[in-house]
From TrEMBL, chain A:
This is 4Fe-4S ferredoxin, iron-sulfur binding protein. Keywords: 4Fe-4S, Iron, Iron-sulfur, Metal-binding, Oxidoreductase. One of its GO terms (molecular function) is oxidoreductase activity. It comes from the Bacteria. GO terms for cellular component: plasma membrane. It holds the Pfam family Fer4_8. It comes from Moorella thermoacetica (strain ATCC 39073 / JCM 9320). The keyword Oxidoreductase applies. Residues 22-52 form the 4Fe-4S ferredoxin-type domain.
TrEMBL record, chain B:
The keyword Flavoprotein does not apply. One of its GO terms (molecular function) is oxidoreductase activity. This is 8-methylmenaquinol:fumarate reductase membrane anchor subunit. InterPro entries: Cys_rich_dom (IPR004017), HdrB/HdrD_reductase (IPR051278). It is an enzyme of class 1 (oxidoreductase). Pfam families: CCG. Its EC number is 1.3.5.-.
Length: 190, 299
């Protein structure tokens, strides 16, 4: 990260900072940087910025730096940070919002995570339920690793735990309506 | 005792043992499960990471169907439970959210009914005393690690039925079934969820940590209440051990399977024959499948 002039950066990014606060319901100044979130985060070892550092970036107005971080994409949403935060900062919710803003700007920092979730929601929109086999096949193809976990497929099929066929619910139209109405409300691509 | 039952997508596929054993055990204990007709996916992590409204609307559709029937909802899957609870809470706490969600799902939903984890229903409604009375094949001599994972107990504001750092519901259930719950420090550590698929390098390490800590605490098996925890631990156990130059033979169980065994059902009827890590050798070694009267003294 290059040198930054903080006062200017905070001024420039005030609108975006407020938007992140409004969408997430998190008041950034609530965080007093104790670091308990990161100490208990099971994924912190693989993150570029720890969760505490992501909040710090946002507090300082270095929003772009936060948007470029891999951290929101790697968050496992396990809620340990939120559960332990002495200031009740809903960090998982904040991570969601940062990640959604990053996606709006085309900053998809963990492509495989994104492909997986997109494939998942795709099956839900099409069938009303997740279809595990279709999901994995689509995920493997789109992420360019057609044989990932391939040795697990035959035992899963033999044990009757996955099916090549999706279970389509009757009211698929109702589910499609939900997706359509959410999109119409200006939500993100979903 | 009657509940609307929301199995969730996994219970029709990779977690079919959970569905099978949950239904069997519920019937045995007089809990009527009315499966929500034409239920749809709760959206899971993918929905809430992508769109907040979508993540509330998808579960709300199912809750609304149960509400119209006047029933509280029992949910076996920890992740679904968490998402249904999130929708319920958001609608209960905000009139404008209630209006928005009702409009999106095209039916009225007021959150007058409550979502409960199936584990909560078993332990706190059916009650451990009643379960204990029904045990015919106690899990004597079986040391088990109760693994809660994240979403069953966190965040406590949403889940609100057990301690988020040291939950005991499943431990007490294991004891009531005649087994022995070991004390260990990873009972609420995250298994990595879908990171096992999208970022195997991270997920497999997280899975290994959970399994290793269970074994090191003296557990001979791990008990779960979440299909994703189960799938990660059971299906990827060999891979996780090998990646760390280790070896395990640690069967993973759904708590409902263990209840079923103790209540006298056969392993096949509970789905215990479809695990990746075969639990039958352990159960046979401990003579769990035999009636206590015919067990050897040394068992």
């Amino acid at each position: 990260m290059e040198r930054v002039e903080l006062a200017g950066s905070l001024r420039r990014n005030q609108a975006l900072k407020s938007q992140v606060e409004a969408e997430s319901g998190v008041v950034l100044s609530d965080c007093y940087q104790c670091g308990k979130c990161s100490a208990g985060c099971p994924v912190a070892a693989w993150m570029d910025y720890t969760p505490r550092q992501v909040i710090r970036l946002l507090q300082l107005g270095l929003v772009e730096e936060a948007l470029k971080s891999h951290t929101p994409w790697l968050c496992a949403c396990c809620q340990a940070c939120y559960t332990r935060c002495p200031r009740e900062v809903n960090l998982p919710r904040l991570m969601e919002v940062v990640r959604q803003e990053a996606r709006r700007r085309g900053l998809i920092n963990e492509k495989k995570v994104d492909i997986f979730e997109r494939a998942f929601l795709g099956t839900v929109e099409r069938y009303g339920r997740a279809h595990e086999m279709g999901l994995i096949v689509q995920y493997n193809l789109q992420s360019g690793q057609p044989f990932k976990d391939a040795m697990l497929a035959p035992p899963l099929l033999l044990k009757g735990k996955i099916s090549p066929f999706p279970m389509k619910i009757k009211d698929v139209a109702g589910i499609k309506d939900i997706f359509t109405r959410v999109r119409a409300r200006g939500g993100d691509r979903s | 005792m009657k509940y609307a039952y929301y199995p969730g997508c996994s219970l029709e596929a990779t977690a079919k043992e959970y569905n099978q054993s949950a239904k069997l055990v519920a019937r045995h204990l007089g809990v009527e499960l009315w499966e929500i007709p034409d239920w749809s996916c709760c959206g899971a992590t993918a929905a809430h990471n992508n769109n907040h409204l979508l993540s509330l609307a998808l579960p709300a559709r199912n809750l609304a169907i149960a509400e119209a029937e006047g029933l509280d909802v029992a949910v076996p899957c920890a992740a679904c439970f968490n998402r249904l609870r999130a929708a319920e809470t958001a609608v209960r706490e905000s009139e404008s959210m209630r209006a928005t969600i009702s409009e999106i799902i095209g039916r009225d939903y007021r959150a007058t009914n409550k979502t409960r984890a199936l584990l909560d229903v078993m332990v706190n409604e059916v009650g451990l005393e009643k379960i204990k009375e029904q045990v015919v094949k106690p899990l004597a001599g079986l040391k088990l690690a109760a693994y809660y994972g994240c979403l069953l107990v966190r965040p406590p504001k949403l889940t609100a039925f057990d301690d988020p750092e040291d939950p005991m519901a499943m431990d007490r259930l294991i004891d009531a079934l005649g087994g022995e719950a070991v004390s260990w420090s990873y009972k609420t550590e995250c298994c990595g969820g879908s990171l096992a698929t999208a970022r195997g390098d991270i997920g497999v390490r997280m899975i290994y940590q959970v399994l290793r800590h269970a074994r090191d605490a003296g557990a001979e098996g791990v008990v779960t209440a979440c299909p994703l925890c189960f799938l990660n631990l059971d299906m990827r156990e060999a891979q996780a051990a090998a990646a760390h130059g280790d070896q395990f033979q640690l069967p993973i169980f759904y708590f409902t399977e263990l209840m079923g065994l103790a209540l006298g059902y056969a392993p096949k009827d509970l789905g215990l024959t479809t695990h990746f890590v075969n639990p039958l050798p352990l159960l046979e070694a401990k003579e769990i499948l035999r009636h206590p009267a015919t067990r050897r003294e040394t068992a």
